[in-house]
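Two records follow; treat each independently.
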Amino acid sequence: MAVNVKIPTPLRALTGDADTVAADAATLGELVGVLERGYPGMRERLCDETGSLRRFVNVYINGEDVRFLAGLDTALKSGDEVSIVPAVAGG
């Protein structure tokens, strides 16, 4: 089941400057693994040492924040759009 993953500018060095990649995965957690195999270094940028999504990385599936869904256990279906959005901070 192919999903489209929107890659933010800070992570595009890992994807050869691609702004969107396609991947097959049944859950968001599985997708992180697929991305790591294809683009080494992706997991450490998305997940902390406990395996949870990093606080400063927001992930949306079809516009819905996964933190209000099932997190890494959120199911994916063919055609879903996954957006990775780094949090913006400033003072």
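The next record belongs to a different protein.
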Amino acid sequence: MKVSDILQIKGNTLYTVTPDASLLVAINTMAEHDIGSLVVMEYGDLVGMLTFRELIETLAANHGTLGTHSIRKVMDDAPLTCTPETDVNEVRRMMLERHTRYLPVLDNRTLMGVISFYDVAKAVVEEQGFENRMLKAYIRDWPEEKTD
């Protein structure tokens, strides 16, 4: 399974901000859309990611306030990325090694979407369920699972 398969199922809705926007704008956008990350774009290029991790770190450093920081000051300006052709198992390894929950997907310099750890886990579970059903169908007289 490739990242492109996940994006196809997930859809292509993206939420972006500019690096000079305020953290309050970012928090309101994230709360309004129930999302955990925002892609930071400037002049059509990916320049960073802002996740709830950076926001929590900022709140902790400022004793519970956002201060007057722009997104640029607290964003991850070198986010881990992948391509639509990256294998999902490679993405899982990358996310675990870098302790990353959100991964922008780039095709050359074009942002194709963002996948989350949740998206990857869901895709893997669904793929395993499909393979399991196919194997059971292949084996003759396999007992049906009981659903409650």
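Discussion point: The helical segments are 3-10, 23-33, 52-61, 71-74, 88-98, 117-138. How would you locate this feature using only the token line?
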